Amino acid sequence: MLQSSENANGIRSTSPASNPNSYNPVKTTTAPIEQATIGRSLVIKGEISGSEALYIDGRIEGKITLTDNRVTIGRNGTVQADITAREVVVMGKVTGNIECSDRVDIRSEGVVHGNVSTTRISVEDGAVLKGGIQVKSGEQKQQNQPQAQAKAPEASKPAAVEPPKALAATAGA
Questions:
Q1: Burial bucket for residue 127 (CB in 10 Å: 0-12, 13-18, 19+)
Q2: Domains of the chain by residue range
Q3: Secondary structure string (H, E, C) spanning 15-65
């Protein structure tokens, strides 16, 4: 049933009759993940930086810096660059070092020639990884951030510095 109503400006509108007993759920829409895409036919030489996720299906030469975001190298993607990101997924070819604050995922068709530094790493069967791997602990990352922010309290409490050294000594053994 439609009900005609007039608003304050004298404009008539036709809308469904409101029923105080009816339940109309509020529709919530989530914002799509913003992701830039470098297509298959694109070639970029230089430095890439930004604040959104990046999907590479083309060719990149240079440096990629997306510290708080994900970089995905698609099956057709070829990257000759150092990559700094929160998360890196490799399905194509990467020649260069990968510095990751969260996770590196090398899929079965992925090829990486370079050093990888991350807190978590996943290498599927069939993937190629030629280079060094440094896996940092999540605790180490969290301990370094508060220490960098509060240098003065550290000087007054030398005992607070000792446990990480002991931890590092046992980790190296």
A1: middle
A2: 35-135
A3: EECCCCCCCCCCCCCCCCCCEEEECCCCEEEEEEECCCEEEECCEEEEEEE
Q: What is the pLDDT along the chain (173 residues), one digit of tens a residue?
A: 455 555 555 555 555 555 556 655 555 455 566 899 999 999 999 999 999 999 999 999 999 999 999 999 999 999 999 999 999 999 999 999 999 999 999 999 999 999 999 999 999 999 999 999 999 987 655 555 544 444 444 444 444 444 444 444 444 44
In contact, 117 and 96? CB cutoff 8 Å: no
Integer-rounded Cα Rg, in Å, for the chain is 26
Give the count of beta carbons closer than 10 Å to the beta carbon of residue 130. 10
| Residue tagged 């708080």 (tokens) | 68
CA distances from 125 to 41, 57, 61, 74, 110 (A): 29, 22, 27, 17, 10
Q: Are 75 and 92 in contact (CB under 8 A)?
A: yes
Structure tokens at 52: 């959104």
Residue 14 tokens, joined: 């036709």
Using DSSP's 3-state secondary structure scheme, residue 71 falls into: strand
Amino acid at 37: T
